[in-house]
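The data layer described in this paper is built around a simple, fixed record for each protein. We quote a single record here, exactly as it is kept in our systems:
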Amino acid sequence: MTRIFLTLISLHAVLTAVTIWLGFVFEPHNLHAPTYHWHAGLWNTLFTTLIHSIVITYFVGTGRWIREVSRVYKFSGAFHDRSWKAKMQAIPFAMGSIFIIIVAAGFGASADPGSTVQLKEWMGLTAVRLHFVTVLFALSVNLLTYFFEYQALLENSAIIDSVMQEVAKVRASFKMQQEQSIAQVN
């Protein structure tokens, strides 16, 4: 999962760079030019949400798998507890990042000169500057979130490896008992 995650955030970095570039290249008073930035921003928002949703879904699925394997093989709850801790290291940040990127996109929509909903000024910031500030904040939060998610994914991967090692030990022990039983019958 870590390779997939790194690939996704690399693609996200490219999409974010293009979106920001499009935001600076086009003049805000031209009603048609911002549509490129608007579309790129929309896809960027959706892609960011997708990445965090994949991470959340991964943790939900692997947490369930670890719990079920631990129950079936009668392992202690230590694996599940470690998995829960890793999950809780990432999921709140992921949810916050999704919220913040949607807020930044909303401010972007209000800064669009072709929009029917216009935010004139708030706290001394024009709509364009407010959008820019929220984008910078969202970008910073997402970078921090990616760090926490990556650390949690590494930890979860180590937990899964540990569970698989324990399962292999139990299976090897069971196979040896079966072979001994068959040898005693013969």
